[in-house]
What we know:
This protein is mainly α.
Amino acid sequence: GLDLTTVQAALDATKPQGPQLARPEHGERKGPAGHNFGKPALDGAAAALGITTDALKAGLSDPAPMIRYWTALAAQKAPRSFDLTPLLRDPDTSVRLAAAFASARRGMSESAWPVFSAALSPDHSPQARLEALNYITNLPAPPASFRPSLEAATHGDSRVDDYVIRAAKYLLTQ
Length: 174
């Protein structure tokens, strides 16, 4: 199975190594700590991890939320037949959001938007709502039916939800 040390080593391999990699290639985004989560980075991480469909299947039910989270993100490279449904219903919000992002990146956005919408509800922490909005920023435009969720996210206590409000307003202008 996957362990955190192996996942971290594969991610470290995706860090930029010099000025020639300071800017992401077209269509790629920089993640935390300089990780580039575009297609070449995912290919490199998947190869370094030796990720197989069997390993991903094992990750679906791993007791550690962090492994399920990375399983969801690694599934972006899985065959379309790989089912992320268990992770879309995971008890951990970050796992559900990672699975929704991976689903949308795999062209299965119909299962992603309800997860994002639920995460934007006021009963989730501002951090979870911002996490959802950050993922959405890295996807093609949301469907028109998602607009009410974004609009609702712009109404909150600006002392607590400032970043959430600004991120939602930004997405509404895109």
